[in-house]
Amino acid sequence: MRWPYCILGPGVSGLQTQIDLLVHNLRMTDEEMKFKIALAQIELELGNPDGNLQVAREAVAEAARAGADIVLLPELWACGYDLINARKYASPLNDGWFAKMQELAQEHKIALGGSMIEELGETFYNTFILVDKLGKQLGYYRKTHLFDLIEEKEYFTAGKELALLETPWGKIGLALCYDLRFPEMFRAYATKGAETILLVAEWPNSRIAHWNILVQARAVENQCFIAAVNKVGTSKGKRLGGNSAVIDPMGKVLTQGGIAPGVFLADVDPDETAKVRKWMPVLNDRNLDLYD
C-alpha cells in the first residue's frame, strides 16, 4: 500500500469527511502511480543534431497525442556516435541539447528521457537525463560502463554513481546501452527498491539476439519493469537493431518494435513489481555470504 502525503486543512471537518478524503486520496494515488510509457524508436543521422531534433520532436508529439506520460529517446539522440566532434555537441546539464530536451518536454507537456554529451570542465560524459512535463530535471545518470569497441573510453569519462530516482511514477533507475550486459548494476537497483528501470541505447543489429535476451532477463531476475529504447537505421555503415521493448516483472513483453521506426507504447503499474516480489521473494532469498 502506498500512503499519500495528505493534509487535512481548514474547511475539512467531521470524521466521516476526513475518512472520505483519505480514501479518495488513496485511490487517486494508486491510479496516478500507473503510467503510459512511449519508446521513440527513431532513425537518426550521424552528426546532424538539427535534423535529429525535428525527428525527435515528431516522435515526442506522437507520444503525447497517444496519451503517454513519459517518452524515451535513444542514446546520444542528437548527434549519434560522432565522438571525434564531441566538443561540438557537448554542454553542461540544463544547457545545449539538454535544454532542447527540456523545451520539448514543456512544449508537449510530457516527461522525457534520453542521453547526450555532457561537458563538465574538460571532461565529457554520456549522460542520460529524465525531465518532467514542465522541463524540470528529475535526475541524471552518467554512463558507468564504457564500450571500448566504439572508443567510448577515448572520449568519455565513466560515471561513478547509479541513479535511482524518486518520481511521480515510483522509484526509477536509469541505464545506458552497454550497461545491459552488467547484471550487478540492475540487481543493485532492484535491491534499492527500483520498480522500473529505463534504458536508452544504440545497439547494433548484429547483436540484437543478445539485446532481446538480456532485456527480458533483466526484468525477470530483478522482478521489475524494463523499458528499453533502441535506434534504427544505420550508423557508420552498421545497421542498428531496433527491437525497443517494455517487459513486465514476470517477463511478459508488453510492447516491442521491429527494425522500422515507430513509437511503441505500454502501460506500467509499479505496484505490480511489489506484488511479484511478494509472491516469489527472490531478492530476500539471496545467499550473500556464498557470493562473496
Which terms summarize this structure?
single chain, 292 residues, alpha/beta, Nitrilase/N-carbamoyl-D-aminoacid amidohydrolase, six-stranded mixed beta sheet, 9 helices, globular, disordered N terminus
Short overview:
The chain has 9 helices and 14 strands. The chain has 292 residues and is of the alpha/beta class. The radius of gyration is 20 Å and the shape is globular.
Write up this protein.
The chain has a single domain (35-282), classed as 4-Layer Sandwich (Nitrilase/N-carbamoyl-D-aminoacid amidohydrolase), CATH 3.60.110.10. It is built from 9 helices and 14 strands. It has helices at residues 15-33, 49-65, 86-89, 96-108, 152-155, 183-191, 208-222, 271-279, 288-291; strands spanning 35-41, 70-72, 111-120, 123-131, 137-142, 164-167, 170-176, 196-200, 225-229, 234-235, 238-239, 245-247, 253-256, 262-268. The protein is globular. It starts with 14 loop residues before the first helix and ends with a helix. Mean pLDDT is 91; it is low at 1-14 and 17-28.
SSE topology:
Elements: H1 15-33, E1 35-41, H2 49-65, E2 70-72, H3 86-89, H4 96-108, E3 111-120, E4 123-131, E5 137-142, H5 152-155, E6 164-167, E7 170-176, H6 183-191, E8 196-200, H7 208-222, E9 225-229, E10 234-235, E11 238-239, E12 245-247, E13 253-256, E14 262-268, H8 271-279, H9 288-291
Parallel strand pairs: 1-2, 2-3, 7-8, 8-9
Antiparallel strand pairs: 1-14, 3-4, 4-5, 6-7, 9-12, 10-11, 12-13
